[in-house]
Design a protein that fits this description.
- It is a single chain.
- The protein contains 3 helices and 9 strands, in the order αβββββαβαβββ.
- By secondary structure, the chain is of the alpha+beta class.
- Strands 1, 2, 3, 4, 5, 6, 7, 8 and 9 form a 9-stranded antiparallel sheet that branches.
- β1 and β2 form a beta hairpin.
- The radius of gyration is 15 Å and the shape is globular.
């Protein structure tokens, strides 16, 4: 079970090494980004609850999905009810069901099957229909199993692809892992 922390920043590195599974495909999470809800201008919850982000304001341990550039992205809600902090799952290494993941991501190197948040959900088969899934409930379509041991070498740096609060070092990844996505700096918006 996910142990609550005071923030997504504290929770994010704890998800590294966790297993995310949907059906026959399972991966080890290798890269994540923290989003601090109403305290974070880069968060979908920054302006408060909407129909799109409502699950973020609910209890922890649920899947927040959203669509971006035709891809589904998924986050683990990690804050107490009403707080809306979540962790974006950015990349992973396929551990089971690699043949299914290869079919879903034809022509891609194995190390890159789940590299980047949209590629990760495609490899796993996560769609917008998985929005709100209880990740720790028996029989859930998508499950999360926390790692028994913490990752020894965790790197951190700026988040990828956000235009506000882009400088925050709230992206965490397994150092040296080939499945981690390439850093792409976002265009900075001026207030």
């Amino acid at each position: 079970m996910l142990h609550l922390r005071d923030s997504a920043i504290e929770t994010a590195p704890l998800l590294l090494g966790a297993t995310l599974r949907r059906g026959p495909v399972a991966l080890m999470i290798t890269e994540v980004e923290a989003y601090e809800g109403i305290r974070d201008p880069a968060s979908h919850a920054y302006r408060g609850p909407t129909n799109r982000n409502r699950v973020m304001f609910g209890p922890p341990g649920h899947l927040y999905c959203y669509s971006m550039h035709g891809h589904t992205c998924c986050n683990v809600v990690c804050s107490p009810e009403g707080d809306a902090a979540a962790v974006l799952i950015r990349a992973g290494r396929i551990m089971e069901g690699i043949d299914v993941a290869r079919e879903r991501r034809a022509g891609v190197k194995d190390d890159w099957l789940a590299r980047g948040p949209g590629n990760l959900t495609r490899a796993l088969g996560i769609t917008m229909a998985d929005y709100g899934t209880a990740l720790f409930a028996h029989g859930s379509a998508v499950t999360l199993t926390m790692p028994e041991l913490r990752i020894a070498e965790v790197a951190c740096g700026p988040r990828v692809g956000v235009s506000r609060a882009h400088q925050e070092p709230w992206r965490f990844w397994v150092a040296g892992e080939k499945s981690v996505s390439a850093y792409k700096r976002a265009r900075v918006l001026r207030d």
